[in-house]
C-alpha cells in the first residue's frame, strides 16, 4: 500500500504517526524503515487477500527510493556502479525468499516549453510467497524481520558506495 494520511484508513489499515498503514505492520518495523540513511520508504505492504490471484499486491512488499543526495550519483554513475550493486544485492539476498528489483529510469518529458530530464530509482523487495490468510503468520513476520535486517545492510553499503560531497572528513 502507498502511505496515505491516517484520516483515510481502510478496514485493513490502522493509523501510524500521520499515515494509514496495513494493520499488521509492527511499529518498530515502520520506525526502522523510516530511519534509513540513504533510502526513503515509498511503500510497505503486508500483502492482500482481496486481489486477483496473480496480482503483485497479494505479496508482502517494501518499496524504497534513494534519498535526494544519492539519486544523481546513482543515475550518473549507473554503468560504473551496477556491477557492485548487483553483487551486493546477491550477497545480501542469497536465497529465493525475496525478489529484489533495482529499477532506474531516465525520461525526457516535453510538457510545456522545454523537455524535462526526469530521473527516478525504485528498489522493490517483494516476498516470493503470497499472503494466504488474514492474520500475521510466522513466515510473514519472519520475512519482514529478515527484510529489515537486509535493507539496513544495503543502506550501509549504499553509504560506502556513494560518498556525498560534504560528508568527506
Give a short account of the largest sheet: 4 strands, antiparallel
Shape: globular
Radius of gyration, whole Å = 17 Å
Number of strands: 7
Query: Mean pLDDT, nearest integer?
Result: 88
Low-confidence parts: none
Order of helices and strands: EEEHEEHHEEH
* Widest beta sheet: strand line-up: 4-5-7-6
Q: Tell me the distance between the termini.
A: 39 Å
**Percent helix among the residues?**
25-40%
What proportion of the residues form beta strands (DSSP E)? 25-35%
Which class do the helix and strand fractions yield?
alpha+beta
Please report the number of helical segments: 4
Question: What would you note in describing this structure?
Answer:
The mean pLDDT is about 90. The N and C termini lie far apart (about 40 Å). The chain has helices spanning about 25-35, 70-75, 80-90, 140-160, and strands at about 5, 15, 20, 40-45, 60-65, 100-110, 115-125. The strands form 2 sheets. The chain has a 4-stranded antiparallel β-sheet. A 3-stranded antiparallel β-sheet has the order 1-3-2, with no helix packed on it. The chain has about 170 residues and is an alpha+beta fold. Strand 6 (about 100-110) and strand 7 (about 115-125) form a beta hairpin. The protein has 4 helices and 7 strands.
